[in-house]
Specification:
Structural class: alpha+beta
Number of strands: 15
Radius of gyration: 20 Å
Largest sheet: 15 strands, antiparallel
Order of helices and strands: HHEEEEEEEEEEEEEEHHEH
Number of helices: 5
C-alpha cells in the first residue's frame, strides 16, 4: 500500500498509510464492515456474524446495498446465489458506478425467468454516461442452486468479467482510437434486487408473479482487492500487482471463446440493425490489440 507525503509531512503520511491499510484490510471482512444498506431497510438481512447478506423483494419494495469504500481500479469478487423458482420480472444487479450525469459503470445484471427457464446474464459498460455496449449470456450451471463467484477486474488497460474464474467478456482500453474508457472517476460497488417486469423477461411479456414473493438473493465472500479512494487520493493494496497488470493469457482467451461460442445470446458488436451507420469502433479492434 502506498501513501504519498512530502519529507516534511512524514507523520501525516504514516497516519494515512495506517488508516488506509485498515480500510483495505476490512474490505474482505464482514458485510457489517464493508457495506451499507441503501434501500429496502429490513429487506436487507445480514447473518452468520456478518458473513452472509440476503436481499429481498416484495410487492412494496426491493432492496440494495453499497460498499463503504469507493475505488479507482481493482478486482471485485462476490459469491451470489440467485432468486430460485419463478423469478420472472426480477433483476439482481451487481455493478460498479460513479455519480453524476457523465457517470461510468460496469454491470452484471441477472434477468429472472419462469421456473425451468434459464437466467440471462446481462453485461454492460458505461463511459461518460453512455452505455449501449450490452453482451448477454446464458450460464452453464443453475445459478440458484448454489453460490457462484462473479468478478469484475478493472485496471487501466482493460475490464474483464469473470464467472467462477472463467472470463466471459473483455472490454479493452482503446482511448487511442477515440473510445472512452472508465479510468478517471472513482466508483462504488452496488447491488440491488428489484422488479423490472416491464422489460426484464421476454421484453416485458412475462410479469412478476407476486404470489411467489418474497424473492431472495444471497451473497457471501465479498472481497475488494482494490485501490481505495480517500481524501482525494487512491491508495492501493499490497497485492496491487496481481491484478493491476492482469491480462488474458491464451488459456483464458480459449475459455472466453468457449463461453462466447456456446452461451452468448446477444452481442452489440454483431447487431448491424441497431447500428446501421457502422458498428462501434471497439468492435472492429477488440481482437487486434
Amino acid at each position: 500500500m502506498a501513501a504519498f507525503s512530502s519529507p516534511s509531512g512524514q507523520s501525516t503520511g504514516l497516519v494515512l498509510l495506517l488508516l488506509t491499510s485498515f480500510l483495505v484490510a476490512t474490505v474482505a471482512g464482514s458485510f457489517y464492515q464493508s457495506c451499507d444498506t441503501i434501500w429496502g431497510e429490513e429487506r436487507v438481512q445480514i447473518n452468520d456474524g456478518g458473513q452472509q447478506l440476503t436481499l429481498s423483494l416484495d410487492k412494496s419494495s426491493g432492496s440494495g446495498f453499497q460498499s463503504k469504500n469507493e475505488y479507482l481500479f481493482g478486482k471485485i469478487d462476490v459469491q451470489l446465489k440467485l432468486v430460485p423458482g419463478n423469478s420472472a420480472g426480477t433483476v439482481t444487479a451487481y455493478y460498479l458506478s460513479s455519480k453524476g450525469e457523465t457517470w461510468d459503470e460496469i454491470d452484471f445484471e441477472f434477468l429472472g425467468n419462469l421456473s425451468g427457464q434459464p437466467y440471462i446474464l446481462h453485461t454492460n459498460v458505461f463511459t461518460q454516461g453512455k452505455g449501449n455496449r450490452e453482451q448477454q449470456f446464458y450460464l452453464w450451471f443453475d445459478p440458484t442452486a448454489d453460490f457462484h463467484t462473479y468478478s469484475i477486474l478493472w485496471n487501466p488497460q482493460r475490464i474483464i468479467f469473470y464467472v467462477d474464474g472463467i472470463a466471459i467478456r473483455e472490454f479493452k482500453n482503446l482511448e487511442l482510437l477515440g473510445v472512452p474508457f472508465p479510468n478517471k472517476q472513482k466508483m462504488r460497488l452496488y447491488s440491488t434486487l428489484w422488479c423490472a417486469d416491464d422489460w426484464a423477461t421476454r421484453g416485458g411479456l412475462v410479469k412478476t408473479d407476486w404470489t411467489q414473493a418474497p424473492f431472495k438473493a444471497s451473497y457471501r465472500n465479498f472481497n475488494a482487492d482494490a485501490c481505495v479512494w480517500s481524501s482525494g487520493n487512491s491508495y492501493c493494496s499490497p497485492n496491487k500487482n496481481s491484478w493491476f497488470w492482469e491480462e488474458l493469457d491464451s488459456a483464458k482467451k480459449g475459455q472466453m471463446k468457449w463461453v462466447q461460442d456456446n452461451y452468448m445470446v446477444y452481442n452489440y458488436c454483431t447487431d448491424t440493425k441497431r447500428f446501421p451507420q457502422g458498428l462501434p469502433t471497439e468492435c472492429a479492434f477488440a481482437n487486434i490489440f
